Amino acid sequence: METGEEFGPWLARQLKLAGKTQAELAEELGLTRAAVSAWITGRSTPRPTVMADIAKALGTDVSTVHTRTTDTRSGLPLTWYHRPGYPDGGRDLGNAAAFAFDADVQVLARETCQNSLDERLTDNGRPVRVRYTLHELTGEALDAFRDAILWNELFPHYSAVSEIAGHQKVGRVVDAGVRDMYEKGRLVLLRVDDYNASGLTGDDYADGKFAAVVRRQLESLKSGTAAGGSYGLGKATLWATSALGLVLINSTLSVPHEGRTERRVIGRLELPWREVNGEPYAGPAWFGRPDPDSPGARVVRSWWADEETVARLHLTRDSDEPGTSFLIVGAHDVASLEGSVSEGDDEITEEEGSEDTRDIRRMHRRLVEALGRDFWAAMTGGGGRLPLLEVSVRALRNGEEVVPEQQVDPSVEQPSRTRALRAYYEGATVDRLTEAGQVAARTVPLKLPLQGGARGTLGTHQAVLLVTEAEDRDGTKNQVHSLRGNRMTVRKAGVPRLPVGTNPFQAVLLVGEAAGESAPFAQEAEEFLRAAEPPEHDRWGQTEELTLRWSPSAYRRISMLTSEVNNAVRDLVARPRRGNQGGGEALRKALTVRKRPKAKAPSGPVIPVLEGLEATIGDGGEWQITAEVSIPKGDQVVPMVPIAQLDVRSGGRPRLEWAELVAVEGCEVQDGTLRFAPGIRSATFRGATDITSHPVRTSLTRLVLELRAGKGE
Amino acid sequence: MKIYPYKRLNRPITLRVTSVSLRLPDGTRDRLETTAYSTQQQAVALGIAGHDDWSSATIGLSATLPPGADAPDAAWSDLRVLAVLTDGETNVRTSTELTRDTENGRDWSGSVEVLRDDHLGRASLAVYAVGTVDGVRGRSIAETDRSWVVDTVSDEPVRGLRLEVQKASFSRSSRDWLRVYADAPWVVDTSARVPTVFVNTDVEGVMGLLDSKGSGVDSKVRDLLVAQMATDVWTAVFHSAIGDLEVEPGSGPVFPTDWQGEVLREMLPDVVPGVHVEEALRQVHRRRTGESGWAELQTRIHYAAVRRAEASRALGYVIRALEQMNRESET
């Protein structure tokens, strides 16, 4: 049996939820108010017989009072709270943060996975496990889910938004989302779970992770110096991915709140300003328990749900390990349309056609691809070091598996970079590459500037550069991927000025805390680079923060690092320029025998070419051939002589005589020469070789057929 | 078009070089950096480390067979994979058997030993999958479609043949024969292993001009000079190659397998346009040895050389640079 929270705080909250005072309860139980007060402050506990009375008074059963793992159902039921319109009449037609992102599961993967990495519980040394579940609901399952989220209460709000849909983006998206659900009778839920993460801790309203995600915009709470800025702008991608603007959350906390950890649930809806039944609403809405402390008990807060409720909301977590589950209701992936042209041919197109933005198989594939691309480093361990992150993706339809759970394997998604990092962790790197598959390591200096605009250098951080041979699966060749402490690929850049013929490679640059704890100035470098990172976390360069905390020219230190890195890479993969052996480079280049575009074909008679050939060995041991000839457009066609020869390894080819040469179509044969009628573009002829001209047994020969102009000499 | 009298695999084998090492006279081994080979150019340069005295080289290989080689209904049995190193100049052919990396896998690997004494310059490296077909052993089922080039001398893994450039003081060179040409700025020697251009350092400033960098008029003049030299070289190597053909009785001239073959394959399409190179070779040979037509061909040979030397582009640049200079001096 689960251990519930302390009796005192539990009872206090139940009273608050039920809108009762201690005195009222005391009166119902026939006890003094002091006795109830003693329970609440924890000075005493009620006798078992009194427990039954308390249960009755709270409108619940005895076991709930004993276990105290959930709130009673007394008091105000779960509901939606829509923020009222601003008194000044202002209208927000969409959430600015969410507006910045388009629906793209790859961006979602990047942002959510990064949040999970940042919220990883570091003490146990284990990776944070993240799982993406795509779940398509239809029929009864869809109806049941809609009941669970009180769809009927929401519907008037969606209708109101649809009415103004023509005028602005968010409205149009929501309108399309609702229509898709009704027309196609389906709804895609995309759930993002993390385990071994901190969970949404803290109070419902005061500072804390819970409030940062559920109540606020743009607030970024960083758990450590290496963090990429968790639950900041990026959390808006959750809502941007939902065509209905709706996300439900179930969190298991690493630090108890109100004495509890499991099944803290709340929903948040992002809609534009709207008017329903004459009442204006500002935009956001929350799904939860009305808070008796709020004015008129209308504002809702998170509640501690029971197992049945989370199951109905599709929010059941696998274990009591801390972490958060986000359920994106009505997930869609507009960005997938862009890449759909170049997709592989192995994909079975869903009946909806290739322009469906809610195809769970395609979303599955795009998630795996993005996770592999952005988080291969965090998923890589080695040398006794566990990976920081484990990610899997699965797809379901009404609870049935459509694509089985697949753990994203970095050595499959990014083979050479993963090999590089693993070799580094295992200490198996080399100084120079002498064999394919080796990993070369170098240190590259990053000179850190002094803070506050002062001139000079604080110290030199030694970043680690890894270079290895590229594999086909890695994507673009000759790239440097740069990582900081959170092991997320921040920067991808090609190396310029590589000589022609350089063997394809991939390079990884580990900077800051990724370069190892022992690297000098690792923390300072980490801090410096984080400041140089824009909210997209996709490059390092000039940012406002960098200018303010360091100096306007501080970003040049990053350019210097880049050029050092490029030099080091070139030194490892490119041939060193040899001393001049006489004669300029220009002359040597001019004297290279290489294929040049062929000369223009001359005007005049056109020359037919052999287009197809079929050959078998006849009963008499002769080669029997049927050949197709294609004739270029021209007024005059050169007569051609077919020559049968035997292929040899060196020297001249023995020539075979024809026993028979017959025109089949489009040509005629005269004295072993093919003549073509003008205007005809293709011809066929047949032939058999003269067995007496064969120098060896025919089954041991290879036949070469040529067409020669002129006499066939 | 080529036809085999038995079933084969349609797709080629892919071959990769994975390592290169040299055995030195003192018995030690120098493992060369991966820059000694180029996967894109499919070339290995054994001269890259600057060792002149290596005795043998070991080239590590990995080959991937096309799908279907292990099909249960295949027409062949006893599948084996061989790496074959062929030298067209010395007629040396070395075969090494590769071993399968994993059971039933498509990757095979091994290494070939390149003995320095067996080769003059460029050898080609191919991989064959062979098996027993209809009771005949060792029949080729699939090959690499493009051989790797193993150059025992070059210091740069490039596929295209590089003609040599050397500088020497013609009047004081240890090569006595150069003294005769003491007043020439450069000469071409086509009798060497690889055609070589000797640049006469007695002509003051010629090396400086050839090595000049930058974008001024100097470099334009350098390009023009290079184009002039290259035209000479291409003309000389073509004549040298065409004059040295081996003729098979009954079937005409045979394509040379060394640098001459490479030069001819490169230039013939411009000399006799519109026909297959083998046909072009026969025509050129006929004209040279026959009664007529050789003189008429000279213009085409010259055209082919000028085109290779990119002479018109170099000339255009010089003219433009000069025009600009004149304009500047006028204002």
From TrEMBL, chain A:
<protein>
    <recommendedName>
        <fullName>HTH cro/C1-type domain-containing protein</fullName>
    </recommendedName>
</protein>
<dbReference type="InterPro" id="IPR010982">
    <property type="entry name" value="Lambda_DNA-bd_dom_sf"/>
</dbReference>
<dbReference type="Pfam" id="PF01381">
    <property type="entry name" value="HTH_3"/>
</dbReference>
<feature type="region of interest" description="Disordered">
    <location>
        <begin position="338"/>
        <end position="357"/>
    </location>
</feature>
<dbReference type="InterPro" id="IPR001387">
    <property type="entry name" value="Cro/C1-type_HTH"/>
</dbReference>
<feature type="domain" description="HTH cro/C1-type">
    <location>
        <begin position="11"/>
        <end position="65"/>
    </location>
</feature>
<feature type="compositionally biased region" description="Acidic residues">
    <location>
        <begin position="343"/>
        <end position="354"/>
    </location>
</feature>
From TrEMBL, chain B:
<protein>
    <submittedName>
        <fullName>Uncharacterized protein</fullName>
    </submittedName>
</protein>
